[in-house]
Amino acid sequence: MTAVAAPSPAVDSRGRGATSVFGNLFVALLAAGGVAAAYYVCVLTTIGQKADTLAMRGADVSHPRFVEVMQRALNGTTLVSLVAICVAAALIGFVRRRKDLAIAAALLVLGANASTRLLKTYLERPDLDGTGMPNSFPSGHTTAAASVAFALILVLPYAIRGTVAMIGAAYTTTIAVATVWAEWHRPSDTVAALFVVLAWSALASAVVRLGRVRITGVTARPNRIAMWIFGVVGALSAVAAVVGFSALALGEHLTPDLVSGRYVFAAGIAAVTTVVAATFAIWVRLAAGDRPTPAPQPESPFAGGTP
User: Fold this and answer.
1) Comparing C-alpha atoms, which of 18, 60, 94 is closest to residue 260?
2) 219-254 burial, b if ≥16 CB within 10 A, otherwise e?
3) Phi, psi of 129, rounded to the nearest 5 degrees
4) pLDDT band, very low/low/confident/very high, at 2 (cuts 50, 70, 90)
5) What is the pTM of this model?
6) Average pLDDT, integer, range 297-303
7) Is residue 52 domain-resident?
8) Does a structural domain hold residue 240?
9) Is the bond into 294 cis (omega within 30 degrees of 0)?
10) How many structural domains are present in the chain?
11) In which domain, by residue range, is 52 found?
12) Is residue 1 part of a domain?
């Protein structure tokens, strides 16, 4: 008895072609807009500056283990370690015979860190909170941590990208929290750094897609476990951030100094965690689209079988 051939599943070409290139460019523009929005709200407005500075100065945590972890994280993020990981990412790309990924990884790391340095040097910070502190927007440490994590996600084999993304997100969050805890940066500095990295990563991904625009195949989906974890963590931390800053705004109108600095620090860290989860989730999705899997071949109508 001849078996009826199953219909061939439709080829999922999403993420490929010219549309995917423009999609990545759109993400890059949105991320750049996030940098501009963070600068306007947290640097150019009085209430934004006050909340940002209060969050930074509220980190009066003296737990020995916490202090040790934060100090090690900051001390481990150096120029030497950044260069070493960049070289390793490039080598992985060449070993996998994906020179385009190696070049894209270098582009996103160098572009993001150079942009952060330029923004920090030339952006002005008006003294609206009465502290007279110089500009620290965006965070160089957070940019370095996130950019190398994004580079590794891009060049490593697809099967382990989800795991690497979760490890990279945890490390980036630790660095971002450590810079705020050490009063090197305000929460907005780290948020802006993450948007800078995402902008350059999306741009680098667009370059990769442009070079492979004619390659057909089924676009691989991002790691579901990683996306689920990023979604849950991002949603919970977003709620905490909204509640925290809403309480601060309400307290400013009713009873000044009602909300403690430590409370605002926790709200700021929740906001940072939200942006880390969101940017890493977006990047995992963009990077997953790079992997074309073979399109399913239709089964021959003459194939025989037994019931």
Assistant:
1) 60
2) bbebbeebbebbeebbeebbebbeebbeebeebeee
3) -105, 5
4) very low
5) 0.82
6) 47
7) yes
8) yes
9) no
10) 1
11) 18-290
12) no
